[in-house]
UniProtKB/TrEMBL annotation:
Gene3D superfamilies: 3.40.50.2300, GPCR, family 3, nine cysteines domain. It is found in: Cell membrane. Belongs to the G-protein coupled receptor 3 family. It comes from the Eukaryota. Residues 527-791 form the G-protein coupled receptors family 3 profile domain. It is a multi-pass membrane protein. This is G-protein coupled receptors family 3 profile domain-containing protein. InterPro entries: ANF_lig-bd_rcpt (IPR001828), GPCR_3 (IPR000337), GPCR_3_9-Cys_dom (IPR011500), GPCR_3_9-Cys_sf (IPR038550), GPCR_3_C (IPR017978), GPCR_3_Ca_sens_rcpt-rel (IPR000068), GPCR_3_CS (IPR017979), GPCR_3_vmron_rcpt_2 (IPR004073). The keyword Flavoprotein does not apply.
Length: 791
């Protein structure tokens, strides 16, 4: 042990410490050691804790793994000193060991010392592996585990929208465990890792060149650097050498606030780096004396075991800068302070049996000379106190401290050095949504940019599209595909599109559902207006024809063509023209029942009149034959009764239809995907086709009779015109059937209305136009002689 250097102070109880004074960062490690000494001396002066008990310390300086183990074993073994007054000996074994500053050396310390049940408290070892209580049963730390740091970094990456990152780590337990936890947390937060590599500060040039080539070829712009200050210096120098810019480094607490980073070539590569580190704190009254003596190599109190000369008082701090002077941002140094106080509180509770935690079965308190490390371990697990800065200190079941971090951004100062500026906080003890908070301080990004850099494999999919993963690539690499017909996505980066409700349809951007367009044959649209125009025009012509016939009712032509049936036919034609109007407008229960029944009854009335006129023509011809008295069997009374009988049959059919299953309004959502067609369902298709079939039967009968009478010898053969009208009527309705079945939406209604109007106009023109022509333009032909064809 002669090769190990040690700082020591005797006391009733001793705390051990292991630090690395001989590294190139003597200021930081020396500050840690001085903090431990300061805290112990502060406790010794404080009557409120361990009153009457003096704490001592043994602080070893190590260099390398072997020195670490030798120092740890030296602290555990100790030497026994003789107690003269009691005639017994006591062990110099320390009650707890503070250190080391790195995870890699702390692991063998915790493994070795754990067998002796001696508590080990680290202020800087963050490897999540140390939380394993089976492997490291006596390990505690006052710095959060990398498990929490990894999750915090994953939230940070997600917060800034970086879903495509690279990961670099130091090739040891600290780096590999840290980067593994980080990748797992990143995946849970929807972040993908393009590459993951590990190296050490002694890495070969070939492997380092391979890593640099990976960075050059990568498309990610954010690098998670889970390493120490030594590896980040190697990486920064290599990036500077290859002139690689445009990268955003996200760092771990092991290097982010290290003051020595400014000393390396290409340190400006690191400007804008961001990451989490332990919260800043202040320890008032510390380091002034130590620093003065160290900087000027003199002694302030005149008693100096290092044989330095007394300070003269003429020394000046002007123009002197050192990391040792910076007591405004004691991040990791404060962890040493908390560690010492944690041990002191455990010892205090042990001696006073606080919280009924007596280590003995009889409930008695421990005595100083019999205190064993395992007893301290038991009480250390239960400590819970608040520092003078208001920070609560306790350990969970795995020996970890509460996870509280400052979000630090490396920015250049006016002096040309890099400074870690706190721009946010992370507190794992808060609710999930409140754990990560940014403050109002401006963040400097990589290369000194002021805007947040982008690092994504694929740009975000806008609302109206959804993500489709690219084959054989991570989930962050995808194509944005428009939502299928009838579906929407109303959020960015939607995985799936969702269907709109039945009565809704996507807008043109497919990012929201809007009510479907409701369609029906309306009065204010072109087609509806045309139907109204033709319908009213038909009524107008029918009215004019009626007036013409009425004015010439006593003339031979009108009387010869059965004036009574003619006027009834004109009336039924008026109803036929008007019934087409019932097909226009929003369908309702009453309009649906009215339109079909009105159409069926008026047309049967119309065809019945035409059929009656046809029969009259035939009967009249038969009556001119010798010894024929057939007309007495089909006089005016029989004509009226035949029309009434034919019409009543249709009325009965319609009543049965309306009674059993009448037509009703429906919303047709099948014809068009983006429209709702308001139409009338037939109710009973049998009823509808029965109405049409009966009209067709009468029309066919009328056509046959008229065809048979087409060559009668009258100069004015009405049967000929009836034949033409029935021919048009049948042609219209035969054409109507396939057109009706195949027409979509409101065109079905339009087809039916135009069939009604066409057949009505056919009857009006074919039957009455020739008569009006003679009545108005050829009155000389309106004589009985001319009509009978006699010379």
């Amino acid at each position: 042990m002669s090769l190990l250097r040690m700082l020591a102070q005797k006391g009733d109880l001793t705390i051990g410490g292991i630090f690395s004074f001989r590294t190139s960062f003597i200021f930081r490690e020396f500050k840690f050691a001085q903090t431990m000494i300061f805290a112990i001396n502060e406790i010794n002066k404080n009557p409120g804790i361990l009153n009457g008990v003096k704490l001592g310390y043994k602080i070893y300086d190590d260099c390398g793994t072997m020195d670490v183990l030798r120092a740890a074993l030296a602290l555990v073994n100790g030497q026994r000193s003789e107690l003269i007054e009691k005639n017994c000996t006591r062990s110099e074994t320390v009650q707890a060991i503070l250190g080391h500053s790195g995870s890699r050396p702390t692991i063998p310390i915790a493994q070795t010392v754990g067998r002796f049940h001696v508590p080990v408290i680290s202020h800087f070892a963050t490897c999540a592996c140390l939380s394993n209580r089976r492997t490291y049963p006596t390990f505690f730390r006052t710095i959060p585990s990398d498990y929490y740091q990894s999750r915090a970094l994953a939230k940070l990456v997600k917060h800034f929208g970086w879903t495509w990152i690279g990961a670099l780590a130091v090739d040891n337990e600290y780096g590999l465990n840290g980067i593994s936890a980080l990748i797992q947390a990143a995946i849970e937060n929807g972040v993908c890792v393009e590459y993951s590599e590990a190296f050490s500060r002694t890495v070969s040039s070939h492997k380092l060149s391979r890593i640099i080539d990976i960075i050059k070829r990568s498309t990610s712009k954010v690098i998670m650097a889970f390493m120490t200050h030594q590896e980040i210096k190697v990486l920064a120098a290599e990036l500077y050498k290859h002139n690689i810019t445009g990268l955003q480094l996200v760092g771990s607490d092991a290097w982010l606030t290290d003051h020595s980073l400014t000393d390396i070539e290409g340190h400006r590569i690191l400007v804008g780096s961001i990451g989490f580190t332990v919260s800043r704190a202040q320890i008032p009254g510390q380091f002034v004396k130590d620093f003065w003596e160290y900087m000027f190599n003199c002694s302030l109190n005149g008693i100096d075991y290092m044989k330095r000369k007394p300070c003269s008082g003429l020394e000046s701090l002007h123009d002197i800068e050192s990391q040792f002077t910076d007591v405004s941002e004691l991040r990791f140094t404060n962890n040493i302070y908390k560690s010492v106080y944690a041990v002191a509180h455990a010892l205090n509770n042990l001696l006073k049996c606080r919280d009924t935690q007596s280590p003995f079965s009889n409930g008695s308190c421990a005595e100083i000379k019999y205190i064993q490390p395992w007893q301290v371990l038991q009480h250390l697990q239960a400590v819970n106190f608040t520092t003078t800065n208001g920070e609560r200190v306790y350990f969970d079941s795995q020996g970890d401290s509460p996870a509280r971090y400052d979000l630090v951004n490396l920015q250049m100062t006016k002096k040309g050095t890099m400074e870690g500026v706190t721009v946010g906080i992370y507190d794992a003890s808060l609710a999930e949504n409140n754990q990560f908070l940014m403050n109002n301080i401006s963040v400097v990004w990589g290369d000194g940019h002021t805007e947040v850099p982008a690092s994504v494999c694929s740009v975000s999919c806008l609302p109206g599209t959804h993500k489709v993963l690219q084959k054989q690539r991570p989930v962050c690499c995808y194509d944005c595909i428009p939502c299928p017909l009838g579906e929407i996505s109303n959020a960015t980066d939607s995985i799936d599109c969702m269907k709109c409700p039945l009565e809704y349809w996507p807008n043109k951007y497919r990012d929201s559902c809007i009510p479907k367009e409701v369609e029906f044959l309306a009065y204010n649209e072109t087609m509806g207006s045309v139907v109204v125009l033709f319908s009213l025009f038909g009524v107008f012509l029918t009215t004019i024809t009626t007036l013409v016939f009425y004015c010439h009712s006593e003339t031979p032509l009108v009387r010869a063509n059965n004036a009574e049936l003619s006027f009834l036919l004109l009336f039924s034609l008026t109803l036929c023209f008007l019934c087409s109007l019932t097909f226009i407008g929003r369908p309702s229960d009453w309009s649906c029942m009215l339109r079909h029944t009105a159409f069926g009854i008026t047309f049967v009335l119309c065809i019945s009149c035409v059929l009656g006129k046809t029969i009259v023509v035939l009967m009249a011809f038969r009556a001119t034959l010798p010894s024929s008295n057939v007309m007495k069997w089909f006089g005016p009374t029989q004509q009226r009764l035949s029309v009434l009988a034919f019409t009543l049959i249709q009325v009965v059919i319609c009543i049965l239809w309306l009674t059993i299953k009448p037509p009703y309004p429906i919303k047709n959502m099948e014809t068009y995907m983006d429209k709702i067609i308001l139409e009338c369902a037939l109710g009973s298709p049998i009823g509808f086709w029965a109405v049409l079939g009966y009209i067709g039967l009468l029309a066919l009968l009328c056509f046959i009779l008229a065809f048979l009478a087409r060559k009668l010898p009258d100069n004015f053969n009405e049967a000929k015109f009836i034949t033409f009208s029935m021919l048009i009527f049948c042609a219209v309705w035969i054409t109507f059937i396939p057109a009706y079945v195949s027409s979509p939406g409101k065109l079905t209604v339009a087809v039916e209305t135009f069939a009604i109007l066409a057949s009505s106009y056919g009857l009006l023109f074919c039957i009455f136009l020739p008569k009006c022509y003679i009545l108005l333009l050829k009155p000389q032909k309106n004589t009985k002689k001319h009509i009978m064809g006699k010379n």
